[in-house]
Design a protein that fits this description.
Layout (H helix, E strand, L loop, with lengths): L4 H10 L19 H9 L14 E5 L26 H8 L1 H4 L7 E2 L3 H13 L5 H12 L23 H12 L4 H11 L3 H13 L5 E6 L2 E13 L2 E7 L8 E6 L5 E8 L5 E6 L4 E4 L22 E7 L6 E7 L2 E6 L2 E4 L5 E4 L8 E5 L6 E7 L7 E8 L5 E9 L1 E2 L10 E3 L3 E5 L6 E7 L2 E7 L4 E8 L2 E7 L9 E4 L7 E7 L5 E7 L3 E2 L31
Parallel strand pairs: 16-19, 23-27
Antiparallel strand pairs: 1-4, 2-29, 3-4, 3-9, 4-5, 5-6, 6-7, 7-8, 10-15, 10-17, 11-12, 11-16, 12-13, 14-15, 16-20, 17-18, 18-22, 20-21, 21-24, 22-23, 24-25, 25-26, 27-28
Helix pairs in contact: 2-9, 3-7, 6-7
Length: 551
């Protein structure tokens, strides 16, 4: 349908499409047909050409300015400076001082044991890239949800912010971490239930009302987050124009086909051999995440002992994404397996999520509480790669939270050979098997105690479930000698103590305690954020035609 430019702007800023709801309750039968949905989407498009956005006709343009509204630096993984990664301050900013720190003055923090493990996990996952944080913060700065002067007093635009700015790095990491929080993952999962064309409709509403959505896309076990700013029509494709933080200073395009209701993202990624890779998919692999879901305060899912009926949660992240590890969970009811090309899941009731980042970023698998027996094995892609250096976590409702790190992914995908499971989970205990050829680092978080042990090659530690306000552990050496079980008290309300586990001359376990030093933190104020009401107003006047002219 042809409309004048001014009429199109009025439609863009005032009409809410039926497809704009993010509710997951709409059944497939009630969803609009592709033809009717496309017809409705076309009412937002004009006859105006937009040379700066390539061939096609204008539907909506928020006038993203290159070398002004994007960061001048590209996405990266872990920082060489500790303050540029996930810190105690990150956790305090997200969950509050009392949730992650033991009782103390607000200006200092001794992290709770599970929070210490979370730092290890998230900092490992950060190796896959911080695209979610860059996409989120660039959107907030462009819409006036945050002030440039808060990061750099003399900055006139986003592009002038320095990558070496500690406050900027802290903020990027904090917004990156929100992708793992239930309040955010729930909204993103709802969006993935909608088809690509329905998401185009949602994006018309989001951009027109400055809601501040980021776009997430997934391919295999990789994910990526970008910043949308315009929509055009090119043949049978709706083109979503995005700022991709992997490529500052360039415009990239997501194609959503009106005939097939699928999406593709060409030439944005490169393989190890330098060849360009196109991502593509349909319903379930594309999402919109509204800024309102990141407002907080957030519930901390790992800060307290789980409920008795809570599910089992398995996590894995790789330190080197070029030699990533993959997880296999085997139960009597089915199998979960991750690989570079995707996920296979035949465990009834089991769910999973993939973090934004390169293959080897954080994968979280949730297994129903009723499944009490399962094995966890780790695999690498090829025998030509080294055993992947990974961080694996297991959270159970009635036991310590276990974390194992090291060169643990020794089995090879598509190889019939299977070594012993790294973790063997049973109803009343969990066994941790160190690889037969190298050591593994183990930590157990329970109550106010974090217990550490370097498991030598072939050692097995057994962790019994919580009983009598304590957990029990026993160690079996590579030669078969086994220690008696020893208790580790939970002591929920005391100061965090780190225990180093060793074996004494009698063959009994001993625990050498040490206190953790507090670190300085700042309890943040409530973010200056009101969904849908950014500081800058949407342009709706005739002079806005200028945005469709060449630069």
């Amino acid at each position: 349908m042809r409309r004048t430019w001014l009429a199109s702007l009025i439609v863009i800023t005032t009409i809410t499409l039926n497809a704009c709801s993010t509710s997951s309750s709409e059944s497939a039968d009630a969803a609009p047909s592709t033809d009717s949905l496309v017809h409705e989407l076309l009412t937002h498009c004009t006859d105006l050409s937009v040379p700066k956005l390539g061939p096609g006709k204008l539907c909506l343009d928020k006038d993203f300015r290159w070398s002004t509204d994007d960061f001048s630096f590209a996405n990266w993984g872990s920082s060489t400076m500790a303050t540029g990664n996930v810190t105690a301050q990150t956790l305090v900013s997200l969950f509050g001082h009392d949730a992650v720190c033991v009782a103390s003055e607000a200006s200092s923090c001794i992290l709770r044991p599970a929070a210490i493990q979370k730092l290890e996990e998230w900092n490992t996952a950060l190796n896959g890239g911080r695209c979610e944080g860059l996409a989120t913060l660039s959107t907030r700065l462009r819409l006036g949800m945050e002030s440039l002067s808060a990061y750099q007093p003399n900055a006139r635009n986003t592009a002038e912010l320095s990558v070496d700015n500690p406050l900027l790095n802290e903020s990027i990491v904090r917004w990156w971490a929100t992708q793992f929080l239930e309040e955010v993952t729930h909204r993103a999962a709802e969006a993935r239930e909608r088809s690509p064309l329905q998401l185009v409709g949602d994006l018309f509403f989001s951009l027109g009302n400055d809601r501040g959505d980021t776009i997430g896309m997934y391919q295999g076990t990789s994910g990526h987050s970008v910043t949308p700013f315009a929509i055009t029509l090119r043949g049978d494709d709706f083109i979503i124009h995005v700022y991709d933080n992997n490529h500052p200073g360039k415009r990239f395009e997501i194609f959503v086909n009106s005939k097939t209701n699928t999406w593709r993202y060409p030439n944005a990624f490169h393989g190890l051999d330098g060849s360009v890779i196109t991502w593509k998919g349909g319903t379930g692999s594309l999402e919109l995440t509204p800024m309102s879901s990141r407002k907080g305060p957030f519930r901390c899912p790992f800060c307290t002992t789980s409920l008795a009926t809570a599910p089992n949660v398995v996590t894995i992240a790789s330190r080197d994404v070029s030699e990533a590890g993959f997880v296999e969970v085997t139960t009597d009811a089915g199998t979960f397996l991750s690989s570079p090309t995707g996920i296979t899941n035949t465990i009834s009731g089991a769910t999973y999520s993939i973090g934004k980042g390169s293959t080897g970023g954080l994968i979280t698998v949730t297994i129903p509480h009723a499944i009490t027996d399962f094995d966890i094995r780790l695999k690498r892609e090829s025998k030509n790669l080294s055993a992947a250096d990974v961080v694996v976590g297991l959270r159970r409702s009635d036991g310590a939270t276990l974390q194992v790190t090291g060169d643990l992914a020794r089995d090879v995908l598509d190889d019939a050979h299977q070594s012993s499971a790294l973790l063997s989970v049973h109803k009343d205990r969990t066994l941790v098997h160190a690889p037969s050829s190298n050591s593994a680092q183990l930590s157990l978080a329970a109550g106010s105690r974090i217990t550490r042990r370097t498991l030598n090659a072939g050692e097995i530690i057994t962790v019994r479930s919580i009983s009598g306000n304590s957990i029990e552990v026993a160690l079996k050496g590579a030669k078969g000698a086994t220690t008696p079980f020893a208790k580790i008290p939970l002591l929920q309300k005391s100061e965090t103590i780190e225990l180093t586990m060793s074996i004494d001359d009698r063959g009994h376990l001993t625990f050498l305690p040490s206190r953790l030093e507090p670190v300085r933190v700042v309890v943040p104020k409530v973010p200056n954020f009101t969904p849908g009401k950014p500081n800058q107003t949407t342009r709706t006047t005739v002079p806005s035609i200028e945005i469709s002219e060449p630069d």
